[in-house]
Amino acid sequence: MPKQCLECKIVIVNTSKQAPNQKYCNVRCKNAAYRKRKSKQSRISQRRSNLIQNDAIIYILRQCIKAKTVQILEGHTLDSFIKLIILISTKYGRKVNICHIAPVKGKGSTGLLHDRNIFHAGAYQNKKFRNKYYSGGLKIDNDQLLEKWSVTDKMSNNDVLLKIEEFLGDIVSDYIAVSPVRKSKRAQIANKIISRENCQTFDDLMERSYTELADHWAMINKKRPFKVLHKEESKYIAYMDSLTRFILYGGKRKSMLVRLRKILILGYMALNRISGSETYNKYFYVRYAYLIKTEYVEVMMAQPELWSELKDIIYDTVFEVLQGADLNINKFRKTIMSYLIFPEKAWQERGLQYYRENLKNPQ
Length: 363
Known about the structure:
- By secondary structure, the protein is mainly alpha-helical.
- It folds into four domains: about 1-40, no CATH class; about 55-180, no CATH class; about 185-220, no CATH class; about 235-350, no CATH class.
- The chain is about 50% helix and about 5% strand.
- The protein contains 15 helices and six strands.
- It has helices at about 25-50, 55-65, 80-90, 125-130, 155-170, 170-180, 185-195, 200-205, 210-220, 235-250, 255-270, 285-290, 305-320, 330-335, 345-360, and strands at about 95-100, 110, 120, 140, 300, 340.
- Helix 7 (about 185-195) packs parallel to helix 9, helix 10 packs parallel to helix 13 (about 305-320) and helix 11 runs antiparallel to helix 13 (about 305-320).
- The N and C termini lie far apart (about 100 Å).
- The mean pLDDT is about 85.
């Protein structure tokens, strides 16, 4: 069988004694392959060093320290680990938190850090419901936690990361081989602060927000901090995206979640028409316009001054559903519909009523 060059894939034509061991057709291909290997090794090495400075990885480290074990990462594959990183890296603004279904510190159990056990939701609702647990999610019984995998808040981030790598096996090394690992913007400022203040530690600084670090750096330089003002979007889309993700997972609750999402679309369109409600998301219609029915296009609130009441009902209900609570979807739909009107439909009904009355009582 003809042998191909590993670099250019051309058939190697060689009659020398070394032909069976030859991998490349010439020195140029051999050198090109060597440079690629060195470049890949260098890239992977850089990604490995960036792990401890990456926002998503730092979040994972904090969660392990909070749970006091790296076993909250149990059951991961490379695919699920990548999904977790993407989910953690998705930002919806400061008013949105990453919330757990099975809580990290539950009754006799510890919630896992897995994409099927977390969702994005409002910070207010997260604080309001705290560790309340209904059903579902992923967790591990506390009597299954092993001392070998325990961590403490006295351990450095790097030590916790090493224990995670040991626990997950090849998953972390496989992850950095296929995914970019970028440094956090906070890491860049933290390193600048450390260069001027030796009393500060990198791990401690990374516990602080980007705004806090930027303000601290400005204070060191005796300058006014530079702030970019962004219009903060509504957390509505965070609930929509979380619902959509769990719909894709399927299961016995799928049909209820699908109906709930349709009701949320009506709520968004009605609230979006009221400027005071600040219900705006740049990509809402880009993602969900295909779900809007023609007869509902002109939906609006019957009493615009009740927008806050409607919004609270929607946010609280969806938060509890995502946490695994049961929902009487017909009753919920009836409640939401009581806040809404459909002008076009109302005019059609009035026209039909007028037509019937004129037929009964012709002039």
